User: What shape does this take?
Amino acid sequence: MEDYKAIGKRISNWGRWGKDDVLGTLNHLTQERLAAAGKLVKTGKLFEMGVPVSSGGIQLPGRSRTNPIHLMSMTALDKWTMPGWEDIIICDDYIFMPLQSVTQWDGLGHVGYDGCYYNGVPADSVRTQGGSQVLSIHQIAAKGVAGRGVLLDIAALNGVDRLPPEHAIHPEELERCEARQGVKVGPGDILIVRTGWMRHYVIDGKPEIYWNGEPGLHLSCAEWLAKREVAATCSDNWAVEFLDPAKMALPLHCVLIRDLGMTLGEIFDLESLAADCAEDGVYEFLFTSPPIKTIGGVGSPITPLAIK
Ligand code: UVW
Assistant: This one.
């Protein structure tokens, strides 16, 4: 397999939308495409694809990403003394969490190599104080992430409820899945790849297996995603890409985020959506999932929705 840097150089989107572009492949989400995606809503069936945000969540102890901490700052126990407020109950809460600890977007300031991120933005543009000075995720929030979502259920294609961790998905398999499902991934689509790997957590309650390797997209998919002009790629695994246990490197992250400028969606729970798609044979829908408007953020927790 060719070196990831050579692939990245060949399919690079740097400069394509201008030297100051901060959105990358989300530029494929045009107003016309969003209007067309809106027409996919026929029944009003809605599927929410986030994992729970909870102190007992998907993260394992002792890692750099902890589970969220949720605290109350006001409850019914706090009595109001202002005149007219005596009977009123107000509850408020806080949450402290790594932005990448649950279902999330990887923003364009999340991963780079050779001293820079997407569009040549220098590595030191992400600072300990203030975060990403250029590729901040709040700009993606302003763009919104909404369009035609397409589910490719690779686990179902293989006749299994989940793929084994050594399963690397190649472009030919994506195309066989398209043919089986009668759907085609096209320009401006948000591609959602189901591996079934999330079942280790949402069905079996075994996060330790979920985080131990994963099936996913092989590096060879980078060129395919670029050619199809996919706007964003999401999966039910934790890094979108297949992880070679011998290397544990993230070559597809490097090419997709840094060279193509693609926002990646991870840790999706696709089980209800996939069951419905298998039942009605409809694998396309309106997808929406804006990030939190965090100034300087390089990622964001999300609550993605698919609406049919
Ligand atoms: C890394 O593992 C670097 O990040 P993520 O899986 O959140 O993209």
In short: Residues 171-181 form the longest helix (11 residues). The radius of gyration is 20 Å. The longest strand covers residues 146-153.
